[in-house]
Amino acid sequence: MVFFDIANTAAFPRVISAKHLSTASALMEGTGASADLLGPGIGGFLLGLAPTIPAGAALAYLADSLSYLASVLGLTTIRTPFQVERQSQEKRPSIFRDAVAGLRFLWTHKQLRPLALPGMSSNLFIGASMLAIIVLARNELHLATFMIGLILTVGGVGAIAGASVVPWLQRRVSVSRILVAMLVN
E strands, 7-156, where? Predict the structure, then answer.
């Protein structure tokens, strides 16, 4: 997912015109929120269909794999190049050096750093906290997998609501004020 997000962020401005970028970005976030909304419920449903948890997990992974296949097929229909033509380089770039250079760039820009740090920390802790919630709901509350999926689905409702108001909000408030409000909250 991390690599998809990075590639999506890099390619999105090449595919969408600058005039439509904020609306398209809100639609993309709404789509992601819809997946967050529906995914856990569908996953819990698929787990519940199978006679055992491993068989249900295999079914859920199969459905997830098919969704990625649909994404790849959809990407093949886009005729705009996703990246600019690169200058030929004599030596092959190092992903480690590139990552260090990117982090150094981010750390030296005082405007970008406060925007990136909350996102990085939430990405670090959300996966672990979701796993803890699932284990506690299953082992301590003895909830069925479908019910756990339904509970996890509720979080997507707020994300969809937020994504749906972005175009309206951006017509009335500057992007910088929105970012400051996000950091304060």
Answer: none
* Contact call for residues 17 and 154 (beta carbons, < 8 A): no
For 149-181, the DSSP string reads HHHHHTHHHHHHHHHHHHHHHHHHS-HHHHHHH
Distances (CA, A) of 135 to 20, 91, 145: 42, 47, 11
Q: Give the CA angle between residues 40, 154, 121 to the nearest 5°.
A: 80
CA distance 38 to 28: 15
Q: What is the pTM of this model?
A: 0.52
What are the tens digits of pLDDT across the range 129-182? 877 888 888 889 998 877 887 777 776 777 777 777 877 887 888 877 777 776
Beta carbons within 10 angstroms of residue 34's beta carbon: 14
